[in-house]
UniProtKB/TrEMBL annotation:
<dbReference type="GO" id="GO:0015074">
    <property type="term" value="P:DNA integration"/>
</dbReference>
<dbReference type="InterPro" id="IPR002104">
    <property type="entry name" value="Integrase_catalytic"/>
</dbReference>
<dbReference type="InterPro" id="IPR044068">
    <property type="entry name" value="CB"/>
</dbReference>
<feature type="domain" description="Core-binding (CB)">
    <location>
        <begin position="19"/>
        <end position="111"/>
    </location>
</feature>
<dbReference type="InterPro" id="IPR010998">
    <property type="entry name" value="Integrase_recombinase_N"/>
</dbReference>
<dbReference type="GO" id="GO:0003677">
    <property type="term" value="F:DNA binding"/>
</dbReference>
<dbReference type="InterPro" id="IPR052925">
    <property type="entry name" value="Phage_Integrase-like_Recomb"/>
</dbReference>
<keyword id="KW-0229">DNA integration</keyword>
<keyword id="KW-0233">DNA recombination</keyword>
<dbReference type="GO" id="GO:0006310">
    <property type="term" value="P:DNA recombination"/>
</dbReference>
<dbReference type="InterPro" id="IPR004107">
    <property type="entry name" value="Integrase_SAM-like_N"/>
</dbReference>
<dbReference type="InterPro" id="IPR011010">
    <property type="entry name" value="DNA_brk_join_enz"/>
</dbReference>
<feature type="domain" description="Tyr recombinase">
    <location>
        <begin position="137"/>
        <end position="346"/>
    </location>
</feature>
<keyword id="KW-0238">DNA-binding</keyword>
<protein>
    <submittedName>
        <fullName>Integrase</fullName>
    </submittedName>
</protein>
<dbReference type="Pfam" id="PF02899">
    <property type="entry name" value="Phage_int_SAM_1"/>
</dbReference>
<dbReference type="Pfam" id="PF00589">
    <property type="entry name" value="Phage_integrase"/>
</dbReference>
Length: 347
């Protein structure tokens, strides 16, 4: 199994606790490392490795030890994150919580236990939430009319335009995360880094995905016309790009005349959404910088959740949510007053 740069890096923490094992166990040790990597996504591993480097660097500058875990030291660290400094902007509460998760994971892999309920951590974090906590800023949902306008900005006759049309339509109709879009392969078990595969049928397309909680299947039906059909868009991209095996969405090279073999980075989905939204003139009442911040890959998922006029359970299944409450958070423009408890109570 290939390892990304983050997983190759041995941290100072790991060096402190790794003990030698008998040579005949080397193959099991390597296999165990592979399984550890498979337990989380490459993006998560990179983020956690970066968070650990930041924490250990902060400890060195303060003359403190990063290991073993000291709740008081970590309480001071998250205080520094929330307060900021001339060299660093204050972090949002969600980012601080992510840093804590990264530290807990790094300590756990090294054989230590971080008690996040310790008063030096829990009380400080509660104070940070009360002082700096804000309602989440949700990304703008891309509705069907928005998506059609975005598709019109793409060159239908070019390879890049065909690929981008397929990515937008699949992301919307499947309610997929950006990593799920770019993680698709043409078939089952074709790549080591794939997160799923597609199967094109007469009535639509089955997308099989590997997520955090296991495997799930997403059905993407055919559209009312070829112009808006995600299945037709994917089939056209495959045919014109002459794809037979491996990643579904790849780089278009040589000034748009050929297709590479490498899988697209999932950030390309967000860039595509932003670029197409700007080109289509969405939310033109705002400045360009504000518009760029308003749209992301999640705008496609939110658009499906907000637009599909079906039983909420079907939307929940499509998005892979464990609860209806999570699905409702994606429904940006639903009628919040459809059920009026004031009148139902007799007022």
């Amino acid at each position: 199994m290939q390892q990304d740069d983050a997983s190759r890096e041995t941290t100072a923490l790991e060096e402190r606790i790794i003990s030698p094992l008998p040579a005949h166990l080397d193959h099991l040790t390597e296999r165990a490392r592979d399984y550890v990597e498979a337990a989380s996504s490459a993006n998560t591993r990179r983020a956690y490795a970066s968070d650990w480097r930041h924490f250990s660097g902060w400890c060195r500058r303060q003359g403190l030890e990063a290991a073993p875990p000291d709740p008081q030291v970590i309480g001071l660290y998250i205080t520094a994150l929330a307060s900021g400094s001339p060299a660093m902007k204050p972090l949002k509460v969600s980012s601080i919580e992510r840093r804590l998760s990264a530290l807990a994971s790094s300590y756990r892999e090294a054989g230590f236990s971080l008690d996040r309920s310790d008063r030096h951590i829990a009380t400080v974090l509660a104070g940070i939430r009360n002082t700096h906590g804000q309602p989440p800023r949700q990304k703008e949902a891309i509705l069907p009319s928005d998506l059609l306008a975005m598709l019109e900005t793409l060159d239908r006759g070019s390879l890049r335009g065909m690929r981008d049309r397929a990515m937008l339509l699949v992301g919307f109709a499947g309610g997929l995360r950006r990593s799920e879009v770019t993680g698709l392969d043409l078939g089952r078990n074709q790549t080591e880094d794939g997160r799923g595969w597609i199967e094109i049928l007469d009535k639509g397309m089955i997308v099989t995905l590997r997520g955090k909680t296991g495997w799930r299947e997403v059905e993407i039906g055919r559209g009312s016309s070829d112009m808006s059909c995600p299945v037709h868009a994917v089939a056209s991209w495959i045919a014109h790009a002459r794809l037979a095996h491996g990643p579904l969405f790849r780089r278009v090279t040589d000034r748009g005349t050929s297709v590479g073999s490498e899988r697209l980075n999932d950030k390309e989905v967000a860039r595509l959404v932003k670029r197409a939204a700007l080109a289509a003139g969405l939310r033109s009442d705002l400045r360009e910088g504000e518009r760029l911040q308003l749209f992301s890959g999640h705008s496609l998922r939110a658009g499906l959740a907000s637009s599909a006029e079906v039983d909420e359970r079907h939307v929940q299944k499509q998005l892979g949510h464990a609860s209806a409450e999570m699905t409702r958070k994606y429904q940006r423009r639903r009628d919040r007053f459809r059920i009026n408890l004031t009148k139902a109570a007799g007022l």
